[in-house]
Specification:
single chain; 765 residues; alpha/beta; 6-stranded antiparallel beta sheet; 6-stranded mixed beta sheet; 16 helices; 66% helix; flat
Length: 765
């Protein structure tokens, strides 16, 4: 990948539109003050290609703006591409990603944008051969990230090398092979389980044959029993049919006798009821004088009690009237007292306010009078200085106000006299309210009349007599004298009706008994035949039950025979299935072995491990060439892929061991500056490997503040190493704020601040 141009609009601190042309840049330093936006140019390239991996996608938009746009044009081989990524923050927020390919004839670019942002992003990653993580770990050495490879764990280092060498395709092949092997394993496991099930079923053949013989014997016995029971049922059905006519006649006579007996029972109940009612009427007629006397006493008590109740109502009504009048008088008096207090309070308030006003006017008058007296004492009075003398002017103004102040005092005193005058409206209102409270209330006469009416009503009311009469009425009503008097009036007519009904019932009872005796006489000779029929019917029902049971046993036996035959037939089918399964499993077993070998080959310790082993010498050679330049030949690096374990075995790893003239130690044990040199050497070596490998088409190297921790000698060696990389990369960009570093590069990209604090991009060739 060779960068061609970068266009920014409102990206982070790059407010407005900025353009950086990179087609003629070979090796350049990006310089400028801290915070000017040097690293922002490299971030913009990564954002255009891969988007952002941060949670808030709106952070890339310049503060105060609603949208940003980054377009990055680059060349891979002979093809030129342009990626434009747009972010809009207004509303719910939206993003847009556009991919274009320039045509060789210079005509309109060909759009390669997919249906979705994800589709377009996948196309970009296929074209560049990398994602955001691979960009940061190889082609871009970010600020403070020069040790992403050397400081990673052994497993992470292997993963980085795997991406550089394109080993991810083996991961896909491994997963595909594992999936195919799982299918074959599942098929073979299913076939083995099915074969086991079939063999277990086939082992039951002798048992099923024994079951068939037992079922056939049971069926023969059941068929014989079914024939015998059928003959017995047929004979009993013939006997029952012969006697069924006599049984029907007997049942008819029994039903008729039952009906007559029920009618006779009803007549007996009716006769008993009539006798009880006649006895009640006779008792009621015997109490005639007593009932009439009790009814007379009840009516008299009710009449007197009604009069006393009316007197009680009159007392209650008179009491309520007296209470209402008294309550009204109390309310009026309370209101008058409140009005009197309020009027007095209002008048007192007016007098108090007027008194305070008089005192205030007098105080002001005395002060003005004292100031006016100064007209005779001021030295400049009558001289040429009189017009300019402020003291004399104030005294003259005060003297002119004396008459006005005196008028206000006189007016306040006159108002005080009016307030205390008995003819003042407030004084008159107070006198009228006081007179009302001293005089008798206007409703006093009405109250006296109400008390007199209450006394008259209480004279007519006798609570003790009313209670006595109420007890008498309750006792007489409890004795049922009113009801008894009504029944007594109709007793004679009822006695006549009941006597006639009793005679009719006795006649019907006699007739019904005669009919019942005749029916019993006709049914007697048929009883014996019916008893015999019942015995035959019971036996017939029992035989029918036994016949049903025999039929069920025969049916069950036939089903058992069919089941046994079906089981034996199924075993024959299973024998055939077993042969088919064994024939189909043979090629699957061979395929399983092949897939197992492929899983091992595509696995971590297979082809990928061999490729990494082959790449390690190349990485070591390139890293050591750069490291020797950075350390004047003092240090070298070695990548170890195997390590001896505590159990005397060999384990897989990817350790970084650094050597100098005094010995070899693990990377983590060296000082910070020495580790930085190793970091840069390994990262640049990986960039060269990446550039030479066909898996990723990258021809640029971006280094962000990677040499800041180095001393002067180390920086010079770093610059020399970077310049030596120009033969391998089309474009090298180095971000640094170190002043003496910028002059060592043939080209510079200066980031300056404009008047508003934003950056300006200036290229110095």
């Amino acid at each position: 990948m060779k960068p061609i141009a970068l266009h920014l609009t409102n990206f982070r601190n790059y407010r407005g539109t900025h353009e950086l042309l990179l087609a003629d840049i070979g090796c350049a330093a990006i310089v400028g003050p801290n915070g000017a936006g040097k690293s922002g140019l490299l971030d913009a390239m990564a954002y255009a290609l891969f988007g952002t991996d941060r949670g808030n996608a709106d952070n890339v938009v310049t503060l105060g703006e609603t949208s940003c746009s980054v377009q990055f044009a680059f060349q891979i081989g002979s093809e030129s591409y342009a990626v434009r990524r747009i972010r809009i923050t207004s509303g719910a927020g939206s993003s847009e990603l556009i991919l274009l390919r320039d045509e060789a004839d210079g005509l309109q670019a060909q759009p390669l944008t997919g249906n979705t942002i994800s589709d377009t992003q996948a196309k970009i990653q296929r074209i560049t051969g990398m994602d955001l993580d691979l960009w940061r770990r190889t082609a871009y050495i970010g600020q403070g990230a020069s040790g992403l490879f050397s400081q990673a764990t052994p497993a992470e280092r292997k993963s980085i090398l795997g991406q550089i060498l394109g080993l991810d395709r083996y991961e896909g092949m491994l997963e595909t092979t594992k999936a195919r092997k799982r299918v074959v394993d599942a098929d073979l496991d299913a076939a083995a389980r099915r074969t086991t099930d079939i063999e277990a079923a086939l082992s039951m053949r002798e048992t099923f044959q024994g079951d068939l013989a037992t079922a056939e014997a049971m069926k023969a016995t059941a068929d014989q029993l079914l024939r015998i029971e059928g003959e017995k049922v047929h004979e009993l059905q013939r006997l029952v049919a012969e006697v069924s006519g006599q049984a029907a006649e007997y049942q008819r006579l029994c039903a008729e006798a039952t009906k007559l007996l029920q009618g006779k029972t009803g007549m007996d109940v009716e006769a008993q009821e009539i006798a009880e009612r006649i006895a009640g009427c006779e008792q009621l007629l015997a109490r005639g004088d007593e009932i009439r006397d009790g009814l007379t006493r009840l009516e008299a008590a009710k009449s007197e009690l009604a009069e006393l109740s009316e007197a009680k109502v009159a007392v209650a009504e008179a009491t309520r009237r007296v209470e209402n009048i008294e309550r009204g008088i109390e309310l009026d008096l309370a209101q008058w007292r409140a009005d009197l207090a309020s009027s007095r309070q209002t008048l007192d308030g007016k007098i108090a306010r007027n008194t305070a006003a008089i005192e205030e006017h007098l105080a002001v008058y005395r002060a003005v009078e004292q100031q006016a007296a100064l007209t005779d004492d001021v030295p400049c009075a009558g001289t040429d200085l009189q017009p300019q003398c402020r003291l004399l002017q104030g005294a003259m103004e005060a003297k002119g106000q004396l008459s006005q102040r005196q008028e206000r005092i006189d007016a306040a005193r006159a108002e005080m006299i009016l307030l205390k005058d008995p003819h003042h409206p407030d004084q008159i209102a107070i006198a009228e309210l006081a007179a009302k409270l001293e005089d008798h209330h206007p409703r006093q006469a009405e109250l006296d009349d109400a008390n007199s009416a209450l006394s008259d009503a209480q004279t007519c009311h006798d609570p003790e007599r009313a209670a006595e009469l109420a007890r008498m009425v309750s006792e007489l009503c409890a004795a049922h004298y009113p009801e008894a008097a009504q029944d007594l009036a109709a007793a004679d007519a009822v006695m006549k009706e009941l006597t006639a009904r009793r005679t009719d019932v006795e006649r019907r009872q006699t007739e019904t008994q005669e009919q019942y005796d005749e029916v019993r006489r006709q049914a007697t000779p048929l009883r014996e035949a019916v008893n015999l029929l019942q015995a035959d019917v019971l036996e017939l029902e029992d035989r029918r039950t036994q016949l049903d049971e025999a039929q069920q046993e025969a049916s069950n036996a036939a089903a058992m025979v069919g089941q046994a035959q079906a089981r034996l037939a199924g075993l024959d089918d299973l024998e055939a299935d077993k042969d088919v399964i064994q024939a189909e499993s043979a090629p699957r077993v061979r395929r399983q072995h092949v897939l197992a070998e492929l899983v091992t080959a595509y696995g971590r310790n297979g082809i990928p491990a061999l490729l990494i082993e082959n790449a390690i010498p190349e990485i070591e050679e390139e890293a050591n060439r750069i490291l020797q330049t950075l350390t004047a030949g003092r240090m070298s690096v070695q990548l170890l892929t195997q390590v001896q374990t505590k159990t005397a075995g060999i384990g897989e790893t990817l350790d970084v061991v650094v050597s100098d003239g005094e010995g070899s130690r693990d990377y983590s044990t060296w000082s910070g500056g020495e580790r930085v040199r190793v970091d840069i050497a390994l990262r640049v070596a990986l960039c060269r490997i990446l550039a030479r490998r066909a898996g990723a088409a990258v021809r640029m190297l971006a280094i962000d503040e990677a040499c800041a921790p180095l001393d002067v000698d180390g920086r010079e060696a770093f610059i020399e190493a970077v310049q030596g990389l120009q033969q391998y990369f089309d474009c090298i960009l180095v971000v640094s704020h170190v002043p003496d570093l910028a002059g060592a590069f043939p080209q510079q990209i200066n980031i300056l601040r404009n008047g508003t604090g934003g950056p300006l991009v200036h290229v110095v060739a």
